[in-house]
Amino acid sequence: MTKKIILLRHGQSTWNLENRFTGWTDVPLTPQGEQEARQAGELIKQQGLVFSRAFTSYLRRAVKTLNIVLEVLNQEWIPVEKSWRLNEKHYGALQGLNKSETAAKYGEEQVQQWRRAYDVPAPALTAQDPRCPSADIRYRLVPPQYLPLTESLKDTIERILPYWKEEIFPRLEKEDNLLVVAHGNSLRGIIKYLKNIPDEQISKLNLPTGAPYVFEFDDRLNLVKDYFLGDPAEIQKRMAAVAAQGKKK
To answer: In terms of pTM, does the model score above 0.90?
Structure first.
């Protein structure tokens, strides 16, 4: 019997619309983002999937997306687990800056490194910066040494994988289908691990908002195939738009 995990990047946020580095900044969905969540729910509904459990981050754009999807599916009753480990990659001092303006200032190549390179972190926040996670009440129970001032994708993967290996993936042994609603880079980290994508190739993976990505596993929990739900041409178009966000105007 095939079991499925659907990975879903949240719908468009206000800072996605403004082309800003967001990271751990907690911004809401736009009306378009809410519509993307509903459309994602409809695509999943067409598959006839019933989920055993859902997972999401501590950030409202992911939480809201999940809530909308579950409402469309009439599956608001399933257990939902939230973890800071599923948060977006922390973009350090870049958070809040416009990506195109940053590319004009530092160059497109540097911004591409900050956005997509495997082991290149953005400039870090100072410990006194009010944007530090340690100043946010939602992280009060997280050991301080785990709260980042910046992260590379490598750092993000090291944060996520313990949660994936210990809490999410083992559920497939006794449960059926799982839904994970998170963020562009946190999901890129999971996908890199699942598909064994080399470090030097991960920069080519760009996830559009609101596009359900299905991973199917056999009885031994081996990955057998993966695919997006929706029109392939539209998915490719939206991937290209994500890739272009770091270009100067």
So the answer is: yes
